[in-house]
Amino acid sequence: MRRRLTVLGAAAAATVALAALGPAAAVAAPASVPGTVSSGKVKLTVRSAPTAASAPVTTLRNGAKLAIACWVRGPKTKGRVRTTDRWDRLTSGAYVSDAYVSRRKPPPACPAPAPVTPTPAPTPTPAVTPVIVPPAGAVPVGPWVGPVPGKGTSGFRTVSRPAHDGIDIMAARGTPIHATAAGTVITVVCNTSGPSCDVDGSPGIKGCGWYVEIHHAGDIVTRYCHLVRRPDVTVGQQVTAGQTIGSVGTSGNSSGPHLHFEVHYGRPATRLNAVDPVPFMKAAGAPVA
């Protein structure tokens, strides 16, 4: 009997010792790899997925510390530290490009997602394709000027480009772009699937690059795409007809320096309210063709 009590006492002591160690003693959590943001004078964007086109979560200043869980492959990026297609998943679950991260050792590769057995999808109901009809009634108010010197070379919704909601006007890189009429700047955005709007785009990249939208009298919105760098205006700024808002470039989906120019009747600017800039600008006394 005394021997049995001794054995039970030893087992109880071992149980108490294991409990004191806590859950970490059974399954140790993988350690994160420390890193430091190296982005120079600009902030590094933290994104929801491993691509520059995914939604931004926050930004981090140069020198900020990172806790990296693992890495996955994504679009190749050229940064201050390296050129790579690796994207670091932070312990928060968000992603940053490894091209802008200084670290002593590489993080481990993220484990492949567990296979998911697909379930039969229900038979979809055929979608009705909306008929896009440019609205009538877009009337220029006040004096208007051409956005850049030159004439349009690629038309509005042509047979070869039915989704082209504006016109392209060829101009040399750096040519000043002018507000076509007085109004309020409502959009200043970098829109690209590439690494940055501050580098030349290509036909294989999606997006309008650096672009500006101005809201004019008569509820008319003009859009100016593919600027060479961040526009010279800010959201909320009042501009006058002929005022310089930026410079011609080839950022985003572009094969060479030019201005993509759109006119919309209504806000926000969408495919449903785009109008052909050529007859509109002719009526405004500032022909572009």
Strand content: 25-35%
Shape: globular
CATH class of one domain: Mainly Beta
Secondary-structure element order, N to C: HEEEEEEEEEEEEEEEEEH
CATH architecture of one domain: Distorted Sandwich
Structural class by secondary-structure content: mainly beta
Q: What distance lies between the first and last C-alpha atoms, to the nearest angstrom? A: 106 Å
Largest sheet: 8 strands, antiparallel
Give the beta-strand count. Answer: 17
Query: Superfamily at the CATH H level of one domain?
Result: Glucose Permease (Domain IIA)
Poorly predicted ranges (pLDDT <50, ≥5 residues)? Answer: 1-29
Radius of gyration (Å): 28 Å
Count of alpha/pi helices: 2
Summarize the structure.
The protein is mainly beta and 289 residues long.
Key structural traits:
289 residues, mainly beta, SH3 type barrels, Glucose Permease (Domain IIA), eight-stranded antiparallel β-sheet, five-stranded antiparallel β-sheet, 2 helices, 17 strands, globular
